[in-house]
């Protein structure tokens, strides 16, 4: 997410369908902000070294209809953008980064 940690938090706070939980194996769509949850015990340098940035959001897609998920993300992104300070008005979703992706060997 482009913006700041506060922008990422605002996006999460504005979700209506998607839950802010770190469950594994749930059937519903979940979102977390790893820098503030699963990686909060690491220093900023350790987080950066592991690919965790303040605006990184982890989305686990559940069984809801994709249109509902996309609509919820869209309205939350719009709300986070509107609430962002003037210099951060670009709360948009960047292109995926693949440098941390490992190929799956089967």
Task: Describe what you observe in this structure.
Helices cover 31% and strands 6% of the residues. The protein has 106 residues and is mainly alpha-helical. It has one domain: Aspartate Aminotransferase, domain 1, CATH 3.90.1150.10. Strands 1-2 form a two-stranded antiparallel sheet. Helix 1 crosses helix 3. The longest helix is centred in the last third of the chain and has 18 residues, at 66-83. The chain is globular and about 35 Å long. The mean pLDDT is 82.
Number of strands: 2
CATH T-level fold name: Aspartate Aminotransferase, domain 1
Q: How far do the termini sit from each other? A: 31 Å
Strand ordering within the main sheet = 1-2
Major sheet, described briefly? 2 strands, antiparallel
Strand content: 5-15%
Uncertain parts: none
CATH superfamily name?
Aspartate Aminotransferase, domain 1
Radius of gyration, rounded?
A: 14 Å
Averaging pLDDT over every residue, what do you get? 82
N-to-C series of helices and strands: HEHEH
- What structural category characterises the helix and strand content? mainly alpha
- The portion of residues assigned to helices is 25-40%
Tally of alpha and pi helices: 3
User: Number of domains in the coordinates?
Assistant: 1
Can you identify the CATH class? Alpha Beta
